[in-house]
Amino acid sequence: MSSNNLKTWLQRVVLFAGASASLATMGVEPANVQLGAFYITPTLDIETRYTDNLFRSETDEESTWIVDTLPKVQTWLQNGNNRYSATLQLQDFRYASSHDDDFTDYQGNLDVHHEFNAINTLDMFGKWYSGHEERGTGLSEGNVVERIDRPIELDTIDYGAQYTIGNEQSSARVVAGYRYYDREYQNFRNSTRFRDYDQDRFDVTAFYAIAPRVDVLAEVRYIETRYSAVNRFDRGGSYDNDEYNYLVGFAWDATAKTFGSIKLGWYDREYESAARDEDDGFSWEADVFYKPRSYSIFNLETKRFSQETNGLGDSIDTQEYAFRWDHDWNSRSHTRLEAIKGDDDYTGSFRSDDRWSAEAKYVYKFKRWFDLSGGYRYEDRDSNERSIDYSQNVYFIRADLSL
Length: 403
Known about the structure:
This protein is mainly β. The chain has an 18-stranded antiparallel β-barrel. It has helices at 3-24, 189-192, and strands at 33-35, 38-51, 64-79, 82-95, 103-117, 120-133, 152-165, 172-185, 197-211, 214-227, 241-252, 258-271, 279-293, 296-308, 315-328, 333-347, 352-367, 370-383, 390-402.
């Protein structure tokens, strides 16, 4: 089946799912459609939002209304503790003031959770995505957005597996995983072809119980990244690299009010090109939850990690801090407050960014199959590369529908 025919087929499938979800608003359909041993769950999410800086530009800010439509259909099979599911979706973006940016993304997912016995579990996943980067993000940050007349398109393939020996009640358990990721840009190939890459990731984590529901852990990761082409005008040469991560820490779920994990360690990134400097340093990952009441939960997440660059430099050394508060005011009413701070240093380059984002959202559950939400989102980036600076305000209303 050709790529265009596949997209057309996917579009028909998920639009049918969206139509089914719309009919559900009349209350004539059950929560799921059952076909033999399989269940089918269609959903439809529609968000209308206004942004005052569509292209995330420092100057010449353009405002617009956007309609974001996400129909999705999931089919799944439950067999005891084992679950197998497949999901198809499309996400359609329509811009009132910039039709050149109208776009439809397509995505398919496969997920498997299989328990051979109480202490042997296999999880597998696969994801195919054909979509775009919004202008002003990714490879079109800063003044690049002024030189292109449409979004940058890309296809990705992402799949992997994780095997667990032991369980939460075991005195010790080991989790071993593998993940493959491939990214290929589809237009503006004179420049984007140098950003195509594939990545293999291997990781092993060992847990040992030191108290009921408290584990110490040690984790090792290896990530091999290989780029498809080398730009002969780039004096640094190939971006191909190998990255090693070593982490120790603990995870707990010992009380009714707190749970989470904290990891501390070291990362080391080595390049095949001698013209690029090795990057290493202290790293951490923490994800901590505090639940003072059954209807209220706070979450603090922070991490330092290395990631592939989207432009300047060799890589991006990132430190990120996120705070979230979810609160149920009653059985129908829910709010979320979120704030994120990030520091991005582009190694091998002078560029350094400070970024902030915040979101406040209110959700009201009208029916079991209908949630309506609205809120405000703010983004800000302050960089020593002045063309990268921007601030953006977004106001949104969202409807989530299901059977």
